[in-house]
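Sharing a chain and its predicted structure for anyone who wants a worked example. Both blocks are below, sequence first, tokens second.
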Amino acid sequence: MAGLPGINPAAAPLPDVPGLVRQALLDEVWLTPKPGLVDSANNGSHRDMDLPMFLHSIAAISPWFGTFHALGFEHAGRGSGEMLRLIRPAGIACEQAMYQATGGVNTHKGGVFSLGLLSTAAGRLLGQGEKLTAAKLCAAVGEMCSGLVERELVMARKAATVGERLYQQFGLTGARGEAESGFLTVRQHVLPYWHQEADPQRRLLNAMLRLMAVNPDTNLASRGGLTGLRYVQRYAARLLKQGWTTEDLQQMDSELMARNLSPGGSADLLAVSIVLAEVAA
């Protein structure tokens, strides 16, 4: 790092965002109990994936976050609007590594998108000599994704992907909208409450519930329509209001599995939250 332009070698060590991403993915998948999701207790509402598969997937995709970071640094002088095009080949290769590790199962496509953008933003800020903060990371992601929803969802005449179909059906913008907003849901509903829980396990579970209560999760809408989405949002909000126990989350897990509901979008945002919270620490 000492030889990079704009970096003071005597300054405090810079956050290793690709390393934080890998750890966030591991923290997320091991977190238990996560209602409807794969964890160390069960496979949630998923018949085609389990914990070992997730661990193989994380091992396969983790090296690519260093690639995203390097691309962000290399092209730091380019316009924000060019960055998605420049990192797209790495994104496709990262997804291919995931599919190869999982036998064709989509374990982390949303995470590759969101966390790849965060890693790129970190490299970009580093290359510009900027201080790495959670706020600047989110702003950089928002700038890179400016106009993304308009281009890929609003202007799409025929729904070719699940995301496009859910936008046309319900107006949900999914991971694209969250990235274009600079992870507004995380910034408004998770990070301000991060230290309310002293216990690390409860902190992450509380963050997960906060996300589930407000996130317009396209994974839930895909499986259960708006009815399923609203059911999970109300359930999570109720637990937050009344105060929750591990047994409450285990019961919620059973209820979501019975309805085949999985808040995968909130799981992706939890990993984003972990990275941003570590950068802000």
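Comments welcome. The chain is about 65% helix and 0% strand.
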